């Protein structure tokens, strides 16, 4: 449709500038219907996952709307759910620009944003202003200068602040762009963090008379033993889902291409197979007891179907929107819903 023409213009801009322009344009266009995505009315589309009713299994991934500013604009694209953030307790600027790079030949991005966001207080005000009442995930993290030993304090603070406004909360311990963050995936640290979050969630559920599911977002750069350890922790501490995966530090499939050597996390088509394999491993390690949300390299309806076939209950889109635009949402919904594809 119209997006390929717009993309030509956007790709003449620096990547982060284009990202901001795109979100603001969606906000301006949401009243026109030009950016409306496909919406299936078939009952085959609906999913009940984590006790939440999803009108379709195709979601918007965290990282694009870090401050929860564009919820209403994104809601009109046809997503079954939105995830915003990552948000931290205090505002932080993130890493120096440039920090977002396109690799068009591979339909990929490299980012080292570094959890740039407005802080949880402003974030909550933004979320409160949104009129959309669809399924909303809120992704939380720690400030870059909080010692890893005190990371739980940041996650607990964010959890308390966002809890009343979230359909579910994602605990992001897997971004490669905050120094030391992935150390939280190690057994002892992960065990302590999940205990603290589980205990606090019970208090919040009692206070608000509302149970908000907790999901853990993991890296694609895990070996089989690490997958099993994390899966065991998820079961032990009654977390509700795993989101697989974040971006990768691996450069397989893009080596030698412009910007491929930039530090940061790689997303897009080269991540697809790696991410889908981690989805499959978590599905097996969890024994189907907890849902897996698949994200990473969904560039087509066929890619979304592969995630579901590997064991995902829901899928999310990030970099695919940059390269394919809103049409990708409808294509994925069509593939997964109209043909009745569900995780096995």
What key attributes describe this structure?
TIM Barrel; eight-stranded parallel beta barrel; globular; 344 residues; three-stranded antiparallel β-sheet; alpha/beta; 11 helices
Give a verbal description of the structure:
There is one protein chain. The protein is of the alpha/beta class and 344 residues long. It has one domain: Aldolase class I (TIM Barrel, Alpha-Beta Barrel), CATH 3.20.20. Helices cover 37% and strands 16% of the residues. It has helices spanning 3-10, 15-29, 71-75, 120-129, 151-162, 187-208, 224-236, 272-286, 301-310, 319-324, 327-338, and strands at 47-49, 52-54, 58-60, 81-87, 100-103, 108-111, 136-140, 168-172, 214-218, 241-244, 265-268, 292-295, 314-317. Helix 9 (301-310) links the parallel strand 12 (292-295) and strand 13. Residues 38-43 have low confidence and may be disordered.
Low-confidence stretches: 38-43
First and last CA, distance: 33 Å
Number of domain modules: 1
- Radius of gyration from the alpha-carbon trace, in angstroms: 18 Å
Average pLDDT taken over every residue: 93
Write out the strand line-up for the largest beta sheet, numbering strands in chain order: 3-4-7-8-9-10-12-13
* Number of E-type strands: 13
Could you tell me the CATH topology label. Answer: TIM Barrel
Helix content: 25-40%
User: Major sheet, described briefly?
Assistant: 8 strands, parallel, barrel
Q: Which percent band covers the strand fraction?
A: 15-25%
CATH superfamily membership: Aldolase class I
Identify the CATH architecture. Alpha-Beta Barrel
* Total helical elements: 11
Name the structural class.
alpha/beta
**Which CATH first-tier class would you pick?**
Alpha Beta
Shape descriptor: globular
Order of helices and strands: HHEEEHEEEHEHEHEHEEHEHEHH
